Amino acid sequence: MSQTNGQRSEPILGDVAAQVARDLQPIEAPLDFSYDSDFVADEAYVATLPDLQNGAAVQGAVVVLERVGIHNFRLPIRYRKRDSDELIELETSVTGTVSLEACKKGINMSRIMRTFYEHADEKFTFDTLEEVLRDYKSSLDSFRAQLMLRFSYPMRQKSLRSGLEGFQYYDVILEMSLDADDHIHKVLHLDFVYSSACPCSFELAEHARSTRNKATVSHSQRSTARVSVKSEKLIWIEDLQEMCLTALQTETQVMVKREDEQAFAELNGAYLKFVEDAARLLYEAFESDERILDFKIVCSHQESLHSHDAIAVAVKGVPGGFSTDVSYHEFRTLLK
Prior knowledge:
Layout: E1 2-4, E2 7-9, H1 13-24, H2 43-47, E3 65-80, E4 87-100, H3 110-118, E5 123-124, H4 126-139, E6 145-158, E7 165-178, E8 184-197, H5 199-212, E9 220-230, H6 237-248, H7 258-270, H8 275-287, E10 294-301, E11 310-315, H9 328-333
Helix pairs in contact: 3-4, 6-8
């Protein structure tokens, strides 16, 4: 209480309380929703940014995650062709993962992408992939790392009789992993699309023609062989395509005139095959190549007679090598 000129005055308690509150907790300014295009994130500013991957507690079970990373990161990559120094640039889908220790919250996934861009101007081979793999495994401080590149690889195909040429495209996967002992594992996958004319249908058609003079058409269908090979020596995509073609003969055609269509019918008649035959012919071709350490063959004939497909699977049989297991989803991806 205080007096001035004989008059009593009292402090206004509400104003004092408000001032104390302002001193203790300043009023926040309204959020600025404008984008500042002139702002520069310098090194000092970046150092202040929160990083939840480091120091934050692991949520859920504290277990090792075998694969953590990115899928379907796309970029153009230049590949070298087998018979020349020509480079071909293809859109490529990348899956890059590492194994994450149980005690670690997570990884900096952008480092996988940045590592690829650091090698973007190089020609990509398995050697280049090994460099990329080792780089991002080291930068992410992981004990295992995996890479998978998917692309469609064009090759020129000449028609059977007319001489026309067109591009045949092959679905290809380059797969590489680096294990905890620093050993590299390489797998090359290729899908080869061919025609399979049924031997049984051919014989029945010939029987109807010869005994009852009936016009017949024996059935054939578009078919796919997915071949996967492990090798320490260099195997080109063109090598796999040629091995499949030599074994099966009846690859689907790109450019055709009437004489080519007739030739294709004759070719199918000369190389009739069940799905079991196709798998065994490919097995024979791959087993005889000393460069190939292990292989897996999955054949699918998309039947024109039946409402289901015919399938066959074969592996070389290396201990600890490829398994004959094939998922439902993988069988579905063989439909071309």
